[in-house]
Amino acid sequence: MEVTREIYWNIGRGVALPMYGIFALAAFVFLYGFYRRFAVYRQGKALNRFDSLGTRISFLLKNVFAQMRVLRQPGPGFSHAFFFWSFGILFIGTLLVMAQVDFTQPVLGLAFLKGTFYKMFSLALDVAGFISLLALGVLLVRRFILKPEGLETVGDDYVIHALLFAILVTGFIAEGVRMAATELRTDPALALFSPVGMLIGKLFITMTSENLSSVHKMLWWAHFLMAMSFIAIIPFTKLRHIFITSANYLFVDLAPKGSLATINLEDEGITQFGAAKIADLTWKDIFDADACTSCKRCQDRCPAYATGKPLSPMKIVKQIGDTAFLNPGADLPEAIGADALWACTTCRACQETCPAAVEHVNKIIEMRRNLTLMEGLFPGDEARTAANNIEVNGNPFGFAFAERGKWAVGLDVKIMQQDSDVDVLYFVGCYASFDKRNRDIARSFVKICNAANIRVGILGKEEKCCGEPVRKMGNEYLYQTMAVANIEVIKGYGVKKIVTTCPHCFNTLGRDYRDLGLELTVEHTSTFVAGLISANRLRLKPEPFEFTYHDSCYLGRYRDIISEPRAVLKAAGGQIMEMEQSGYGSFCCGAGGGRILAEEKTGTRINMARVKMAAATHAPLLVSNCPFCLTMIEDGIKTSDLEGKLKALDLTEIVAARIGG
Amino acid sequence: MKILVCIKQVPDMASRFKVNGNGVWYDEVDLAFRMNEYDEFAVEQAVQVKEQSGSEPDITVLSIGPDRVIEPIKKALAMGCDRGVHLRDEASYKKDPWQIAFTIAGFCRDKKFDLIFTGMQSQDRGSAQVGVILAELLGIACVTTVVGFAIDNRAITAKRELEGGIKSVVKFSLPALITCQLGLNTPRYPTLPNIMKAKKKELLVFPVADFLQEKEMTGTGSAYTPARKGSGIILEGDVNEMAGRLLGILKDKTAVIK
What we know:
Helix content of chain A: 40-55%
Structural class of chain B: alpha/beta
CATH architecture of the largest domain in chain A: Up-down Bundle
Strand order of the largest sheet of chain A: 1-3-2-4-5
Radius of gyration of chain B: 22 Å
Number of domains of chain A: 4
Oligomer: heterodimer
Shape of chain B: globular
CATH architecture of chain B: 3-Layer(aba) Sandwich
CATH superfamily of the largest domain in chain A: Transmembrane di-heme cytochromes, Chain C
Largest sheet of chain A: 5 strands, parallel
Number of helices of chain B: 6
Largest sheet of chain B: 9 strands, mixed
């Protein structure tokens, strides 16, 4: 006879009725728990996240079954993934038992849990149980003993850890007791395929059969009832993430990164702009709060949180959830705190790292929209002044708009108003136009174009701020005023291609302006110069230099432009010394999200934190390719007393200085 | 209560000014225009009075000039004024303060405004006379350079800024005209719903000739930029070296160090 074991040994087939009865009860509680939550999600506005189902499903499978995003943080990520996989095997094992006993055997007369398959089944489940316990142990030590900074432990965590631990332990002991009464006596060779059960069974081998039988019954029922409780409490505890976070992968935002809803300002039916209440957000914003597991990975990477600002992306998501469930009529920006909302640099580090695919940034911007558009508020008077300056002169400094093209006097660059026959339009941006230091970037860019025989033109006094900083601050009205004016001028010249030296202009013109009718190729200098070099239009005379590179958020995380600037700098002779936080994990300079217009009044300074990281590489040079970053970095170098030790340059300056060869 | 706010559109002061063709004013090419800063305080104060009095007061905002002055009128409406009045005049820059005040007084004659707010002065001409003359023509009280304002029923307590930063407190009752100085308040940023509402508010347009019969009392002979009388020196370089050079300059060119 083929090896197997008696299913429901000591329990009996008669258990089926109470067992399925209790399961039905657990399933009912489970479904009812989720059903109640759906009503809360539905408070949010409609949003279609059911398009492109193929892409969505593949994202879901990769992240649920392969745990891709979870695994990005090795320590706790590995523990979670191994727990998930092994617990999954235990779950499948239980299903197989059910399938045989209550379906294939009674209906088809087929028993598959026998012979070699049974041996593999038994071994797999034992090993999976062991790994589950091990992974749970690692997670338990981390959460309750090591207590990483910022990890918040709540009641749910105690319940979940205790329950999972007890389910696994009772399972193993029940198995051991059963084996002490059966296999260990009758077929010790088979017991080897249940190694953990065997070891435990040996502890009980001296017990009498009657005692083993009653202890086994007790353990079996305890194990079963706890497993059913586990199912029942899923919707009521953090365990809900098993389903909600999985579903959140399905509802992932497939729009280009950083896309913001462009408000139709002509629609007179709109009475509320931005989010003041839960009902002003979308259902997905509420769903996100349920998908969040408070793993704090976002908080750990938030530059505002790291420098003592009252902002934690994790807490904002939680506060939205709490408001939706407990106090749906409450004023959201008030519940969260305007200071926290203003502190965000929209650097997207939170969203990039989130294992649950939560969308933090647009929630913050929606609430900022309410503050600016509905209440006329700003993070400070200086930001209000900057907005007024943008309105009047098209730049945040308040310089006369007519002086915008002054930096180009004497350079080989066309003013479109006079001659619009150009290969590329250089959209200069406010900083490279007006800021004394950043004008070197503009001049360097023109030099590069001249060397590559690219006919380049600028709009001069017809160019206005792209509107990005005020848009991220929430001022959609002023943004659109700027955007519409720029688009009209650009379209009037029949431009074929736009190049920017500023990643903020780059994203705004290339992506945001599409909603307002500008559909042109827009490129950032990083890729533009990389293209010129590879097409052999631009020849560099490499000079060796050591440097570290700061990834601008709006190039790296937002546009995946990470290798191109590094390749250009390498071609210029550079030897890179990477900072720990680089590429997709780059640490913001502090200027994004309109923060360039506002003073940093709370906590320590983000730019000082960043230059410290650069200085730690011992590279003498910090290269960036964003005027906002350069401004923040140079300021950080001065205030951190690093002058003479660390110098900051823009990529265009490095390239322009090595033209020739 | 009926409130009038008089506003002027002026060039942004960061602009580079050039004298115009007829040599009596600035050329408007390449200038960005905005609401006179002091007039923003006036609008804000009027709106605050309205808010404090349970929205009962009715605020009219008035501006004289070419069509472009509709922009600041719209802004004032978005900030909370109820009605705009545009006294159209393509050559308002040629009018002297007497004519401007007389024009506004002509408009006010049958309107019986209880409270009039104007800026302390315009940022471009800077005569600081229009408000004062207007009050005189209407025969109402006038309090200038106001930096604090409180109204209780029809009794006003205003804080004025005098020479040398000295303040004085003045108590008076309506009807009255107030000219507003920096420090009075922080003008609000118009909200988007209010910007949209402003588009639908009443905007009355009259040719300036409807109210102006007076000849000017003063005229501009010529406008010119001041002659360059030497310029500042910016020292750059090493701190020690700069200190040495500064010491040398102070010794050679001033009597500060002997």
